[in-house]
Specification:
The complex is a heterodimer of chains A (about 140) and B (about 100). With about 140 residues, chain A is α/β, with parallel strands linked by helices. Helices cover about 25% and strands about 35% of the residues of chain A. In chain A, the strands form two sheets. A six-stranded mixed beta sheet of chain A has the order 3-2-5-6-7-8. In chain A, a hairpin with a 2-residue loop joins β7 and β8 (about 125-130). Chain B contains two helices and eight strands; from the N terminus they run ββααββββββ. The longest helix of chain B is centred in the middle third of the chain and has 11 residues, at about 30-40. Classes of the chains: A alpha/beta (about 140), B alpha+beta (about 100). At the A-B interface, β4, α2, β5 and α3 of A face β5, β7 and β8 of B. β4 of chain A pairs antiparallel with β8 of chain B, so a sheet runs across the interface.
Chain lengths: ~140, ~100
């Protein structure tokens, strides 16, 4: 299960809406081994495409070094699908390179509503998981 | 010509869990060949059909090797090579 603060869900959806119809992408980092998302970093989609995303490679290097220094790891990798459902595509599965991460997909195909779903993708196998959205008082309890 | 290589989580099953490796080579291609000799199967995760595999990013110091000559990128003693998973995907072409 992914446990995620409500503000982070709102921020991911806002990022996806802002970049629509191109796909938006980013990371939530957290303390290594904690499985707790604490720091959201929107990333540049170097492809600027409605059907593909790729982190800007130099921005990614800078972020990963920073995470190493702070003893953090990737807790969530998120991206949007802008015309299809929030389910991992074959491309998503082939690239999934963070076995410890939750892969969050947001669909912005409907203007008024969004889908927000989370998956594990390990060795090419997709497993959907529940998302527990923590309200502010729970997140800081 | 000794170079340190930082390995991401996803490749550590291939490197017996090691996060940081040392290898030799005056080009990236030679370095990868030495890495593969030390850790069998690692080469195939980095190179496909003679080019850098699309699923990984490799950096020499702070440069993405895709912009510095790919596998022909020259290495010097003390260089730091970083391997990261390419974080990419997307809905793909409409079918």
């Amino acid at each position: 299960m992914l446990k995620i603060p409500g503000e982070m869900v709102d921020a991911i959806v806002a990022h996806a809406r802002a970049d629509h119809p191109d796909e938006a992408c980013g990371i939530i980092a957290g303390p290594a081994g904690s499985d707790t998302p604490t720091r959201l970093i929107p990333m540049t989609n170097a492809e600027r495409s409605p059907t593909f995303y790729r982190f800007d490679s130099l921005e990614q290097l800078k972020l990963y070094r920073e995470m190493d220094e702070r003893d953090e790891e990737v807790i969530v990798v998120y991206h949007s699908h802008t015309a299809t459902e929030a389910y991992p595509s074959r491309t998503d599965i082939s690239y999934a390179g963070e076995p410890q991460a939750h892969y969050v997909l947001v669909s912005t195909r409907e203007p008024a509503t969004h889908e927000f779903r989370s998956y594990r993708i390990v060795d090419g196998v997709v497993t959907e998981e529940d998302v527990d959205i923590l309200q502010r008082e729970e997140a800081f309890r | 010509m000794s170079v340190t290589v930082s390995v991401p989580t996803i490749l550590r099953p291939t490197t017996k869990g090691e996060k940081s490796l040392t290898a030799e080579g005056s080009t990236l291609a030679q370095l990868i060949s030495d890495l593969d000799a030390q850790y069998s199967g690692l080469g195939d995760r980095l190179v496909k059909d003679g080019s850098l595999h699309r699923f990984v990013n490799i950096y020499v110091n702070d440069e993405d090797v895709r912009f510095t000559g790919g596998l022909d990128t020259a290495l010097a003693d003390g260089d730091q090579v970083t391997i990261l998973p390419a974080v990419a995907g997307g809905a793909g072409p409409a079918s």
